Amino acid sequence: MECHDYGLTRSTERKDLNLNPLQRGGILTTEARKALYEFSDGYSVCDYCGGRLDEISKPQIHGFLDDLASFLHTDHARTVHGAREGKFAVMHAICKPGDTIVIDGNAHYTTHVAAERCGLNMVEVPSSGYPEYRIDPEGYKGVLDELADKGEDVSLVLLTHVDGNYGNLTDAQKVARFAHEAGVPLLLNCAYSMGRMPVDANVIGADFVVGSGHKSMAASGPIGVLGVKDEWAEQVLRRSKMHEVKELEMLGCTSRGAPLATLMASFPAVVERTRHWDDEVQKTREFVAEMEKIGGVKQLGVKPKEHDLIRFETPVFDKIAEKHPRRGFFLYEELKKRKIVGIKHGQTKWFKCSVYGFSKEQINYIADSFVDIVEKYKDLV
Amino acid sequence: MECHDYGLTRSTERKDLNLNPLQRGGILTTEARKALYEFSDGYSVCDYCGGRLDEISKPQIHGFLDDLASFLHTDHARTVHGAREGKFAVMHAICKPGDTIVIDGNAHYTTHVAAERCGLNMVEVPSSGYPEYRIDPEGYKGVLDELADKGEDVSLVLLTHVDGNYGNLTDAQKVARFAHEAGVPLLLNCAYSMGRMPVDANVIGADFVVGSGHKSMAASGPIGVLGVKDEWAEQVLRRSKMHEVKELEMLGCTSRGAPLATLMASFPAVVERTRHWDDEVQKTREFVAEMEKIGGVKQLGVKPKEHDLIRFETPVFDKIAEKHPRRGFFLYEELKKRKIVGIKHGQTKWFKCSVYGFSKEQINYIADSFVDIVEKYKDLV
Asked: Domain A11-25+276-380 belongs to what topology?
């Protein structure tokens, strides 16, 4: 048989300034690049396995999971394949098909598919809509009260700590309180927070937290993190009857290779970077201020920014696209000429971006580039 | 917080001759090492995603999955996180909790945990026991007939194509025939076959095949392969109601980074190497012959070998261990001195090994080393 040419190079995206919020927190540290080299072969972390991934001591997976639990302030920590697989594991362990869960209106699509895969009914706490799309923690109280009035049991409350559309940070502590008042555990989706900003599951009162290594913890995907409070460990980490050391929701072992090694290698740097989260928020706010100097550009979501993921409404680029010979592709192409990538090809009405981890000089260059492009085409506006 | 020292180096295991059957088929090709470098960052394969992993064209994931389906002779192919996750996806999609499935007595533990996680009852077709541990395809007929007589519905038949304990290859075509006569689909676990030897799902009549990238396809884990026959695609690849392009059992996307890039990069070489499977079997048989010249060493499982995974019974090493000052650790340590690894620390009664992919010179060196060690301690025997 003849194979296609798979085009397995990626130099542009590796070398240019990538604004894709999905990718900014997943860029490897030097330590992780070395670990990737060491553990590249299949099943590489299993050299000294005695039967349980989470108990391997060379490399020190066991010690790492202890450190991870300390970092998250949870009783137990496991690696999973990603935040979505962590959410599915929790739902699958503690809910039955037909159960009802309460989620936020800004939930990531993977929350929906994980719940659908489990056959769960979802009741949404809606956002405030345009332009803030704010999730009010009180909304959870309202929805939970309403369901209680109807006599409908709720198995799980899920909150997207920081959502992937607007980068809004919601007060998880309040949501946890309302969930617990209703006797329901809280699963906090920290895919965009864990590894970027401090997350203290204990202070928040989250029963479960999930995070994403490839999204926000400088790891090579797919890898995620699941933190579990002691009182739920028996259910979520329940063992096989046939193979008593194997945890069922983990299918025995989860990440059996390089992604885990990279997560571990980056971890000390990730712990450190969360201590400088305020600087990242400050840089984000300054970038928003620069961008909003361009006529018509407007940051959506809660203001001022409390997270690096930004959604801009950009009618000016849409206007240029109407008359530009390359139509909607012009913005992508103009940015690319300036070594900036990560805005979707063809998108001009609005876009998401992030300057997480960039230096002030790089951020100024990026903002200036957008200004330049508008200036270049001012006759089309 | 203070992090442990994670000990993230692996030079010994990378550079020595590793006999671990779990790892022999997962050693990366040079192309895969390059791809790992290119796609190391988190979410790296998602640069040009339009919403579905399996439709991404840069890198050519879409074309790759087509090639993969051609290679397996299945109608559909997807990447999953590993063979176990593929088995779980099939079971979860087509079985209900409480359903009965029929499996072989040599099934991998992950078959058990996947079925347990789904709440399924397992009925086993036992192996012939010591010393062959053969799975007789007729055994499936017997068990299926018996269940039919009892009026018990069977949702799925699962066969471990080549098992991980004895390396026995079972005639899957016959099992498929018995399964279909009973009106039940067959899931073939090819973790140890796909990528090492030719697997033709169409000729076999398998409705589902799963394989393991890190075990047998020269890929960096965790990554697996799921092949599905058209008539089951609607169930196993069913889409989300809320997000119509997203497949539920895949939770939208599965492998979102480097492991997929390595699987793709190695694929042409993997296709090629399956054409030389007979040479590997021949080398294995010769190695067994050399080892059995050592008094008391005996190959378990079906003879002559039809797969590279070998289980030896080695009473001679156990005898040495009884009197050796390092007890059971001596064998591991003696091998390590000779730059041979992959036999478990402390194991002497029996062990599993594989010489898959080694040159004849390397295999002779390995066999000679075992002979040497026995010779060195002949006074203890």
From this structure: Aspartate Aminotransferase, domain 1 (3.90.1150)
At A350, phi and psi to the nearest 5?
Answer: -155, 160
Q: Which residues contact A276 (CB under 8 A, 6 or more apart)?
A: none
* Chain A residues whose beta carbon lies within 8 Å of the beta carbon of residue B257: 214, 220-222, 259
Determine the longest span between alpha carbons in chain A, in angstroms: 72
Show which of residues 26-85 on chain B sit within 8 Å of chain A, judged by CB atoms.
26-28, 31-36, 38-44, 46-48, 58-61, 63-64, 66-67, 70-71, 81-82, 84-85
Which residue intervals of chain B bear CATH 3.90.1150.10? 11-24+276-380
Output the pLDDT for position B52.
Answer: 87
* 3-state per-residue secondary structure call for A271-303: HHHHCCHHHHHHHHHHHHHHHCCCCCCEEECCC
Q: Which residues of B touch A254 (CB under 8 A)?
A: 81, 222
> What is the ipTM, given to two decimal places?
0.96
Query: For B338-350, what is the mean pLDDT?
Result: 94
pLDDT (tens digit per residue) in A342-373 = 999 899 999 999 999 999 999 999 999 999 99
Spell out the CATH class of A39-273.
alpha beta
What amino acid is encoded at B39 in this protein? F
The CATH code of the domain at B11-24+276-380 is 3.90.1150.10
Contacts of B3 in chain A (CB under 8 A): 64, 67, 267-268, 271
Nearest chain A residue to B219, by CA:
A42
In chain B, CATH 3.40.640.10 covers 39-273
